Amino acid sequence: MIKIVAVSSKKELAAFIDFPHDLYAQDPNYVPELFIAQRDLLTTHPFHKHSSLQCYLAYDDNKLVGRIAAIYNTNHNKFNNASDGFFGFFDCINSQDVANALFEVAAKWLKAKGVNKLVGPANPSTNETCGLLVKGFDSPPVVMMPYNPEYYMDLFEKAGLHKQVDLIAWSWKGQNYNDKSLQMLDKLKERLQRNSNVVIRKINLKKFKEEADKLREVYNNAWDQNMGFFPMTNEEFDYTAKDLKLILDPDFAYVAEQDGKIVGFGVAIPDLNQILRTIKKGRLLPTGIFKLLLNKKKITGIRIMLLGVIEGYRKLGIEACLYGTIIKEYRRKDLAYAEASWTLENNEMVNRAIEAIGGDPYKKYRIYEKNI
User: What pLDDT digit, counting tens, does each position of 136-149 carry?
Assistant: First the structure.
């Protein structure tokens, strides 16, 4: 008999956060999330000031067998004139009965709020981790990207969910990239400056607050056509920027600027998952914090996680310059791998820029939907 419990206590919340550790105990590609980060995301993150979520646990004979969060994203629905409901933080044993029960309780909670469509996974939105891994199960995820076993696809589709859109993660291994494109990079930058007075420069971390205020405006405009996008509030962007600053390498953070106006930016961060894989159950104490601090300089990979250009500047070659500049720096530091993630499958302009420098579309994530 499957029993669904709505999370309402600190103990239940801890069980919700910790459930994947047991589920993935034998999976060598699993990377535990930091407990404190997940707890804050589910309780105190600025997202909760405009939206709401309810976490659920599934039990079978008192054994924890699954989890899900039902998410009502007020700002998404206002911005997109939609009545969507989201689900996220889905994890489940290989049981269709358990999966169906989880989807049903999430749909019931959302339907009571006037929702007519179930969309996900989003943890809790497209501004954080989202998508179900459907291709590329042979390697661990990079930092701030989701991971799941292959059988989740069957659980989703047999529960009546179907594809809304796919998200692509691109990979470069070692020095495997298109050197010809990088050789042309300086000429492309010169042409960009000569014809449009647009220059590519590093983000100034000494004036980070001032830079972040400008970047927020670009972020909220550059992604306006993305599936499921909604603008971050000032508080949400500042929360994210503060976290990123802690791990940011200034050699991998660039803006495109025209006459003092930032019109695009690209940011790559070190793949902290190389360290997080070694931190048991995502606990920083008593020893996890030391692993994190002592091993940061040993990280050999990056994730290009943010790249956007505002409308009116998207056909000038800025995307190629930003990607090329980051990959050129990646080459200079002789790193082992880089991932660019994610891009929409139908974002031809950005995808072409990545393909031009030898990006391999090695992983794919899927957003599902279902009318309820």
Answer: 999 999 999 999 99
